[in-house]
Amino acid sequence: MMTPAQVVRRKREGEELAPSDIRAFFQGYAHGAVEEYQMSAFLMAVYFRGMSATELAALVEVMLDSGAVAELSALREAAAGQRTSTAGLQSETDKVDLIPIDRKIRLGGVFKRDDSDFWILWMNGHKLHPGYLFPEIQKIKVEKEEVYLEWYDIGLNDVIKLTMRPNQVYDIVTGILYNDTAGGR
Fold it and tell me: Among residues 124, 123, 104, 109, which one has the least CA distance to residue 170?
C-alpha cells in the first residue's frame, strides 16, 4: 500500500495508478487520513497528466461506493406531477424535498456553413455540434436562422418538438416560447 505522498508523486510523474491505490487514496481522504494539500496536489497532477480509462473507472467506482444508495424512482413521478402521496417510499428517511429546477431550453447563437452539414450552436450555455449533443436531444436539424428540435424531457416523460430561433427560450414547465431579452438570465 502506497502512502498519499507516493500516490501524488507517481501521478505527478505520469505513472498509471492501480485501482487499489486510487481506492485507498480517496477512501483515506474521505476518512481524514489524506490531507487537503495532498488531495490538491493529486488533483493538480491529474489536471496536467490526465487519467487513464482504468484510473477513471476506479475513481468512478470509488465515488459510487462512497455514500448511501437512494431509491429515486418516486422523484420522476413527482417531477412530472404524478405523485400525490408518499406511498411507495420505504420510510421517513426516504422522503426527498424536490428542488425547483430551471427547466428551460435556451438557444443562443447558431452558425451553419453553406452547403454543409457542419454547424455549431450554443444551448443552455454549452457549445454543441454534430459530434457533441445533449442526451435529451432526440433529433435536431440546424438551418441558418432556426433549429428544429426534438427534446426528451424526463419530467414530462415525453418528447417536445419545437422550432427555435437564436436567442429564444422555451420554458418546459409552461410550454411558452419567448425571446430572451434578459441575456440568458
Answer: 104
Q: Read off the DSSP letter of residue 74.
A: H
Residue type, 37: Y
Residues contacting residue 13 through CB under 8 Å, at least 6 positions apart: none
Pick the CATH number of 4-64 from 1.20.970.10, 3.40.50.300, 3.40.50.970, 3.40.50.720: 1.20.970.10
- 78 contacts: CB under 8 Å, gap ≥ 6: 98
| This model's pTM is above 0.70 | no
CA distance 109 to 159: 23
Give the tens place of pLDDT for each residue, 66-113. Answer: 766 666 666 655 555 544 444 444 444 444 444 445 689 999 888 888
**Within 10 Å of residue 7's Cβ, how many Cβ atoms?**
25
